[in-house]
Amino acid sequence: MAEFFTTVDVLVTQMDAAQLPAYLALASELRGAGIATEVVLDGGKLAKQFKYADRAGVRFVIVLGEDEIAKGVHAGLVARRIRALQLRLDRLAREQESARRDVLAQGARAKLAEQAIEAAALDYGRLNERKALAEIIECALARSASSTQG
Predict the structure, then answer these.
(1) Statement: the pTM of the whole predicted model exceeds 0.70
(2) Do the beta carbons of residue 63 and residue 13 sit within 8 Å?
């Protein structure tokens, strides 16, 4: 299956169709708190719902069973926890990107140093060739001068 990405931050799974009003109420409260939320309306196996969330790029999945609904899920608390997790994940993503850039910069510096060493070696070789050529020319000029004087 092809992957796709969504702007949804939270997916509320459906464990029991009879509890759909509770799922929708939680989603409504989360949306009211500014958190993009989607509710699974067709139910099905939980694994399939998680797979959907993973393929869609949904960062958080809420699973509410009868116990959680009976105790009363407080959307404000859920929203705060989601925001805290989002901030933590965003910070980790920034740190990972920074580390990746540092590694790339180190690699670039190493490559530039390698090229500088190769250029210096090439320049040194050319300098030695020039010295040898200058010596040959000097010897030839000295022989030429001695043969014209003699």
Answers:
(1) no
(2) yes
